[in-house]
Amino acid sequence: MTSLPAPVQAVLELFQGPLSDVRFADVDAAGLANLAAEVEGAASAVALQEARLTELRQTLAERQDALLLLAQRAVAYARVYAEHDEALTEQLSRITLPRAGKPRKATATKASEADASTSAAENAENAVAAPTEEPSAAADEEASAPVLSGSRKTKRRLGPPRDGAQSRPS
Prior knowledge:
By secondary structure, the chain is mainly alpha-helical. The chain is built from 5 helices and 2 strands. A hairpin with a 5-residue loop joins strand 1 and strand 2 (about 155).
């Protein structure tokens, strides 16, 4: 594929064919051919650099997405940590992170890793954002129930199943 416009190619063909022996002041077949080769070389270099730039932009976007996910998770953890610190809670409430976008042209492995990271971040945010229930007699019963670990970051108290329920959702 050539990067030369059709009219320029027509001139080159003329100077390679019927005008190959003709020389004007600074124009001849060899000079035109050399400059055309330089243009093709420069166009090839531009295409390579554009491909590299596209790769670099993709890498940048992936790293920005990964940083955003990690920042969202950090804020969620910090909110849990700052539960009893009003000043820190206020600082955290002023932070508004955008929602993570869909992965960009990720391979199947990268997509599943991103989904797992997103789920973990969303679970942490949901655990922090979940409204608390008003204390009740059932809550008092649950307070005396054994503590079972639901995950590394939270512990839940589980009581006996309620009528007709086999287990409580966590």
